Amino acid sequence: MVWIDTDMGFDDILAVMMVAASSKPVAGVSLVFGNALMDAVRANAAGAASLLGWRFPIHTGAERAILGGVETPAHVLGPTGIPTRGRSLPQAEALPRTDALAALTAWLEGLDAPGEILALGPLTNIAILSLARPDLLSKIDSVTWMGGGATRGNHTASAEFNAFADPEAVAIVLASGISLRVADLDLCRQVLVGPEDVDVVRAAGTPRGDILADLLGAYVDIALTRGRPAMALYDPTAAAAFVAPDAFVFEEAEVTMELAGAHTRGRTIVDQRPHVKPNALWGMRADAARVRALALDALVEAARS
Fold this sequence. Notes:
InterPro entries: Inosine/uridine_hydrolase_dom (IPR001910), IUNH (IPR023186), Ribo_hydro-like (IPR036452). Keywords: Glycosidase, Hydrolase. By secondary structure, the protein is α/β, with parallel strands linked by helices. Helices cover 40% and strands 18% of the residues. It is built from twelve helices and eleven strands. The model has no long low-confidence stretch (mean pLDDT 97).
């Protein structure tokens, strides 16, 4: 059984679809602010569950960072966190407002063997868990996180968005002793999706396929409108590392969060010199064709059904 922690943008939805299509049953999902404010994240999760028939429980987590701030990429993704070329997720009945920390704690307490967590947004919920219940961290086999960047950022010149949104949370998780695997910007940018993939999803010729194609198309448009021919698959690459780890090369690193720099706050400092004390596994290389196929197969299968 696995747990997914997400800020529920389009690439998060695709990542959840990939896990749901794998042999790893989803025990539950916790929501965190990030791609949008929490009300929009909850609406996205309810709409995705309605569209895709998800039956696992979805819980409401942190609405703001450890130090109280709220950062979103609204200038890129809009107020909902999911741009579209036309069709949107269905408006669904609001999710029950169940507490993510209580649900995640109960899941870990009930495990007979350590469980896995896939984290796709700011690490606030995982940091809160590690502070509130350090006795349960031994029940976590690993956390696979989409975040950080060894070379350059995307939200700022130095920082990747998920890290920038709550760098204190990342620092807490790094210090907790949790086994952390990181799929950073550089790894995810090895796996691309383009306009031709939108056509493949739309070719399913179903109402669900049309919605997924419009959402995928708007995701690709983020790159096209910036002069790039294809868009990196961020959260789906982390999901692929989660369900198909043999498609990746991870290497040990000592990772430090920059918390104070005027221009570098949120930067992940990745040290792989021989004398360091590793606290994470850092994604170096991906089998891009295989990862891309896993993501597109999940989309096409959902579009056709």
